[in-house]
Each structure stands twice: as C-alpha cells, then as structure tokens.
Specification:
With 546 residues, this protein is mainly alpha-helical. The chain has 2 domains: 321 residues, no CATH class; 139 residues, Rossmann fold (3-Layer(aba) Sandwich). It is globular and about 80 Å long.
Length: 546
C-alpha cells in the first residue's frame, strides 16, 4: 500500500514537471517566434482557408480561385475565419500547434531521460538546431499552417514508437499526413523503415491489431494524398512544364541542392557530424529508444542521398528529375537530424552530470545558457525590426546608418504599406483587383482584395501554375536583369491592368520621379495618399480596365 502511494505521488510529480516544461517550451516558442501575424506562410495558407469558407472574400483573386490542396487543414481550422479576424485565427492556431509540438518534444525528452527538465532540454535544443542547422530551409516552429500541425502529430507518432506502440504511431502518422501529405508522409516512411528493421531483427511479424492500425493510418492519409493527386494535369506536357516551374523557378532553394546556400550545406553537415559524435559518446548509456530516433535520422539522410543522386545524375533538363524533386527529399532530414542530435545530446549531458555528481547544476547551466542566448538574440532582432515576419522578408527596410533612425524609418515604411492596403479595403468593392509590388506577400491579408499575381502565392494545380508563371513574366518582366514595377513603363503597367482586369495599382514612391510618375496621365488617378500628404506607397485608379 505504501509502495503504491509512492508510485502515485511520483506519477503526479512527473505530470506536474511535464506540464511545467511544456508551458516553458511554449514560452520559448513565443519569445523566439512570436512576431505579430502574418508570419511567412500565414498570409498564404490562412487567406486560402478564409476564401475556402467564404468565396466572397477576394472572389476574383487568381490564386484564391485555384485548386485547394490542403482540405483537411481548411476543414479543421478554416471555419474559424468566419467567426474572427485573421490575426486572432493566427494566434489561436499558433497556440494550438505550439502546444502540440512542445508537449510532444517534452514527452520524447522525458522518455529518453527521466530527470526534471530533460523535456525542455530536448525541445529547446531542437529549436536551436532547426534554426541554425537546416540545409533546405525547412522550419518547424513559426506561423500557423498545415505542416505545424502535421509535425506535432508526427512527433507524437515518434513518441509512441519509443514505447513500441506502433499501432498508435501509424494512426497518428496517417493523421499527420492528412494535414500535410509530405511533412507527415516522409516521417511515416522513416518510421516504416525503422519498424521493418526491428521486425527483421526480432523475426516476429506485427500483430493483427498493428496491421489494422496501419490500414487505418493509410485511410486517414488519403485526406492529404487525394487532393494532391487531383492537382495533376491529364496533359503530360502541361504536367512536365508545371514540374519544371515548381522545382527550378519557384522553389529551387528548397528542392535543388545545387541551389542551396553554401553556408547552409556546411551547417547541416556539421550537424550531421555532431550527431555522429553524440551517438559515439552516448554508447555506454544507449537504449533501444535511442536507436529508434537515430534510425529515423539515418533514414532521412538516405532521402538526402537519393535527392542528390536524382539531381546530379538526371540533370536539370530532365523531366523525370523535375517530377521527382517535387517531393522535397531534404525537408525531413532538416527535422529528424536535429531531433536525434537533441535527444542524444540530452542523454550525454544528463548522464555525465549524474556521474560527476553535479546533478541539476550542470544541466541547468547549459540549458539557461543555450536558451538565454537563443531567445536573447531573437528578441534583439525583433526589437530592431518588430514587423510581422511575412513583411520582414519581403518589404523594403530603411538603410539609414543610425540604428534607431533605421528602425523608425522601417516602421514608417511598413505603416504606409498598411495604410495603402487599408485604403483599398475601405474604398473599393469586394471584387476589386490590384496590381501590386513584386516583393510583397501581405496585400490580401491587409486589404482583403484580389491581386493579379504574386511570387509567393503560387497555385498547386498544374494548369494554374503555368498561368501563374505567364502572369508573373508578363506583369514583372525582366529589365536589365532585374524585375520590378519601377522598371516597367507606364504604358506597360496600364496594359497589364487592362489585360487582367485590375482597376487599381499599388506602387512604391521612394523617389521624386516615382511620386510624380503619372502626373498629367488622364488614364490614371492617384487616390492615396491625399493631396499634400506623403507616403512611401501610392494607390492609383486605372480607368478602362474592365
């Protein structure tokens, strides 16, 4: 009886530590990635989800009218856009996905090493390693979209595999694949390889229940797979050209290793070496679950090798290469290698601290130093540029030498952008279309109106992808090896508006010439800013476009 009471008390204490570490890790996510919405992909996915549930939202926008690829995500969360504004939906989604991710990482950490703060150690180190050690630009912690939910579910699937609850793994993996067929699907494949190796070693086939869960997981995964398959064109030439544009025009920085930044490749392979060292130093404390996590990372590295071989052996002119590289061979290693490195580093640090008798002092010091530097650097960066990350990466920033003046001027540019978008929102019909600057991705978020084309909002179906490319080349032609509306003549701008039914143009005004660009042109009227007021962005009404 006394022993049973002690076990209950220990379990309660573990649960409290689990809750505390989860809350602390969510706090790390918020401090490091809690910039105002929209984040990089929120202005893409949440806008699409809103249009899915309310077709009257920007009804004439080219991208929003294209095929829907993430139906499970839209059905699970898109309806929230009917009840509240986009910013609120983004924060609710972030809190949900961050909690899902944090809880799974903490649970993995506590399963690997029981002492307090092991979950926070694994989760915190994982965030740092994915931030600085990725190769292909894959991220896990950030804005709210389908893959953040998929990764949270995938990590819970990995956690279940550590307890050999493979049936639970297959169901969770299938659900993750439904939210994002590639993010979840590749991790399921890695789990299948690890499970197959275990079956071969044990010479024991899975039980009937596990086979049933595997089938159920496959059925759930159809929620992500079927919409993806429906995006393909029946015309082989159209599909081949769409694959080429997808891989080599729009996303080579994610899909083609020869296009990756050199420092990113070096950082990733340094991380791989670090993983190897962690595996070596953890040998004396190694358990079966350590092998599962390391096996997942190793399998993801095999996908990297396949991606490299496909790229180099087939060549950039090969339609087969284009069709294969669409499957993101590098994204899974950007996730599973940092996870395995964090787990094995936790094993080494926690066991070494136990053996030398330093206990929580060594672990706590490393954890505070690690997260303190990381969070401090993130807060410092956000202090000097507090704009939403969706705007940080695309809108112009001030070049003033003084940091305070540079920050103030950058925020002024951003404020003028939002005011121009809000003028469009408040003074134009819901079906209005605008021609917008090349390097922005938040016009629809702020204005809730359509636009001719943007670089970020690339449709997923083959036919629309070709149309997207045609629009982009037409509206933003290459002039002197550079793109930008400032390089396009007034006649060409107006012709683009007439061709694609745009009644408005939003143009930058960073020079005296640009501020007087359409003076005396009866075809265009400046609507914003008001007469006598200054703004870095102007809204023009184009006549005769419809």
């Amino acid at each position: 009886m006394v022993r049973l009471e002690k076990q209950v008390q220990t379990k309660r204490r573990v649960n409290w530590w689990f809750l505390l570490e989860t809350v602390l890790l969510v706090g790390v996510f918020w401090l490091s990635h809690g910039s105002p919405p929209p984040d990089v992909n929120e202005s893409h996915y949440l806008i699409k989800a809103k249009h899915y549930w309310n077709p009257e939202f920007a009804p004439t926008d080219f991208f929003l009218s294209s095929a829907d690829a993430h139906l499970v995500f839209y059905w699970a969360f898109g309806w929230l856009t009917l009840l509240m504004d986009l910013e609120a939906v983004a924060w609710i989604g972030r809190l949900f996905s961050w909690t899902l991710l944090a809880a799974s990482l903490v649970s993995i950490g506590r399963r690997i090493a029981q002492p307090a703060m092991s979950g926070l150690f694994v989760g915190g180190l994982f965030v740092v390693l994915t931030e600085y050690g990725h190769m292909a630009g894959e991220w896990v912690i950030g804005g709210f979209e389908g893959k953040t939910v998929a990764y949270g579910l995938s990590f819970w699937a990995i956690r279940a595999s550590l307890d050999r609850r493979w049936g639970v793994s297959w169901v969770l993996g299938g659900l993750a694949s439904a939210f994002h067929v590639l993010a979840g699907g590749w991790i399921v494949l890695c789990l299948l390889v690890v499970r197959a190796m275990g079956v071969r070693k044990e010479l024991k086939l899975p039980c009937t229940q596990e086979w049933g869960c595997l089938i159920l997981g496959g059925v759930l995964a159809l929620g992500g797979l079927v919409p993806g398959l429906l995006l393909s064109s029946g015309n082989a030439d159209v599909a081949a050209e769409a694959n080429r544009l997808y891989v080599h025009v729009r996303l080579p920085h994610h899909l083609v290793i020869t296009s990756f930044a050199t420092h990113r490749v070096v950082a990733f392979f340094s991380l791989v070496c670090g993983l190897g060292l962690a595996w070596f130093f953890s040998a004396k404390w190694r358990q079966d679950e350590h092998g599962v996590v390391a096996g997942l990372a190793t399998t993801s590295l095999l996908l990297v090798v396949i991606g490299i071989l496909v790229t180099l052996l087939l060549g950039n002119d090969s339609p087969i290469q284009h069709s294969l590289l669409r499957f993101y061979f590098y994204r899974t290693s950007d996730v599973l290698v940092p996870l395995a490195a964090a787990v094995l580093a936790c094993v080494v640090v926690f066991n070494v601290s136990k053996e030398i008798g330093s206990g929580i002092r060594l672990r706590g010091s490393i954890l505070v130093l690690l997260l303190g530097i990381y969070v401090g650097e993130s807060l410092h960066r956000r202090y000097w540029d507090p704009r939403p990350r969706g705007d940080v990466l695309t809108l112009p920033a001030s070049r003033k030498a003084d940091p305070v003046a540079r920050r103030d001027n950058t925020m002024r540019i951003h404020r003028h952008w939002k005011l121009a978008c809000q003028w469009i929102r408040n003074n134009t019909p819901s079906d209005a279309i605008a021609l917008t600057p090349l390097r922005q991705q938040t016009f629809k978020w702020y204005s809730q109106r359509g636009e001719i084309v943007t670089r970020k909002d690339m449709p997923q179906d083959a036919i629309s992808l070709l149309q997207w490319h045609e629009r982009r080349e037409s509206v933003y032609p290459m002039v002197d090896d550079r793109r930008g509306l400032s390089r396009v003549s007034n006649d060409e701008l107006i012709q683009s508006c007439h061709k694609y039914g745009a009644d408005y143009m939003v143009l930058t005004q960073f020079s005296e010439e640009s501020r007087n660009r359409f003076d005396g042109d009866f075809r265009v009227r400046k609507m914003f800013p008001p007469e006598g007021k200054f703004s870095y962005y102007a809204v023009f009404r184009v006549y005769g476009s419809k």
